[in-house]
């Protein structure tokens, strides 16, 4: 065997061993949420699912966005479908206000203040719960408040792009009063 052939076989064997022992690379699907890497549920935990209070909105998110793959459509507010920001922008618009172009959830409190909306630590029914936690933050609609427990409705809490109603700790969020 020639020296060139031997080097080639050694290189091929090294490559094969490297491929066999290296972790497999995985590519995110084209429609994956940019912040699906770590869900809010993983960051902040999640308490027991909420019992439906009288103020529950329900999953009224339009079918054209709800039924499409997550992040496959840009909505009327320049946000990707089945994300917390799209769900909230839709609900805010239902009340005649706008959060268009507010960007990632972690910027919503600053953008709301700049647009004259009250932002504080006092949740009220209908207010938007907002946090900067994680890479992109999170927003949800407040259904009810019971001491330090706030029942909210949102999309993508667990990183799957689905609607959820659940309880959060009041102190983990700020509250934007778009219409409440």
Describe the structure.
The protein is α+β, with helices and mostly antiparallel strands. The protein is 26% helix and 19% strand. The chain contains five helices and six strands, in the order αααααββββββ. Strands 1-6-2-3-4-5 form a six-stranded antiparallel β-sheet. The longest helix is centred in the N-terminal third of the chain and has 19 residues, at 3-21. The radius of gyration is 22 Å and the shape is globular. Residues 1-36 have low confidence and may be disordered.
Short description:
The protein is α+β, with helices and mostly antiparallel strands and about 180 residues long. The chain is built from five helices and six strands.
Portion of residues within helices: 25-40%
Return the structural class: alpha+beta
Largest sheet, strands/sense/barrel = 6 strands, antiparallel
From N to C, what is the helix and strand string?
HHHHHEEEEEE
Mean pLDDT: 79
Distance between the termini: 81 Å
Percent of residues in β-strands: 15-25%
Radius of gyration (CA) equals: 22 Å
Count the strands?
A: 6
Enumerate the strands of the largest sheet in spatial order, edge to edge or round the barrel. 1-6-2-3-4-5
Stretches where pLDDT is under 50 for at least 5 consecutive residues are: 1-36
The count of helical stretches stands at 5
Shape: globular
